[in-house]
Specification:
Layout: E1 2-8, E2 11-18, E3 21-24, H1 25-29, H2 39-46, H3 49-59, E4 65-66, E5 72-74, E6 84-88, H4 92-97, E7 113-117, E8 122-123, E9 127-132, E10 138-139, E11 142-148, E12 164-171, E13 174-175, H5 176-179, H6 186-189, E14 195-203, E15 214-219, E16 222-228, H7 236-246, E17 254-256, E18 278-283, E19 289-296
Parallel strand pairs: 6-17, 8-14, 9-19
Antiparallel strand pairs: 1-2, 1-5, 1-14, 2-3, 3-4, 6-7, 10-13, 11-12, 11-17, 12-14, 15-16, 15-18, 18-19
Amino acid sequence: MQLAHLMINGKAKPCLLNNNQYVDLQSLMQTNAQHGLNFKQAIEMLSIPEIWQDVCKRAQQFKWHSIHDKAVSFLPPLAQQSRVFCVGKNYRDHMAEMGTTYGDDVKPNDVPNIFTRFASSFTGHQCLIEYPKGETTYDYEGELAVVIGKSGRGILLDHALDHVFGYTAANDGSVRRIQKRTTQFTMGKNIDASGALGPAIRHAHMCPDILSAKIQTFVNDECRQDGQTNQMIHSLPFIIHFLSSMTSLQAGDIILTGTPAGVGAGFTPPKFLQKGDSVSVKISGLLPLEMQVSESMHLQI
């Protein structure tokens, strides 16, 4: 079972997901919260393995519903309050294909390259991802996304993974032209619905091999990216340790851990995304994240 964020009859709800069926978590938990159980509360509550196991056991006695119902769609597994931290330049082969020297001599404990994304820049599984009409440099980046479950500041390396709720897949969609127009990555990475997250979060205790998982991105069934998470320059414990030295990490915060080689910009000629393309990110042990490319309004820059 995994934790999903679903839109059901126009209402966002945290749900358990299993074999294309779901159960509403608030009904399962018999929660009487006035405004319903929100996604951050669900993460905080279920981050404790014993509670997660108890909830999953209880769920077996409930009526499950089909995820294929027309009234149901996937939202990105984000809370309204979630902050999204992204680690740039975290795979040496990706650095080489992008023609940058960063990574040649960087050490695992050096300061990582961090930028942020807004929640509005993500869409969910089986939804449209969008690039501005007329842009020709819209790119994909398949990544492992980490969901924080236990808040903390100044987290020690040895205890960093204790703060992880679980893992999901991400596409750090990027408009390269805009990304290169400034010294920061922020603008090219934050166009509405340009990235994707999901489909659901697999609990950390169910992912013992996630730090050596295969990560692949397919465009129209062509495998473009094929790497492993153990190729990261900066390890996940170090990333959590580093970020928490600057700011208190909160339950529901997301960390995108970087992308391996094979992005569109790395090919000669480049293989950027176009309207109608299908994209999927597959990470061993997690559900595949699928999306289709569409266009949005023109940019004025």
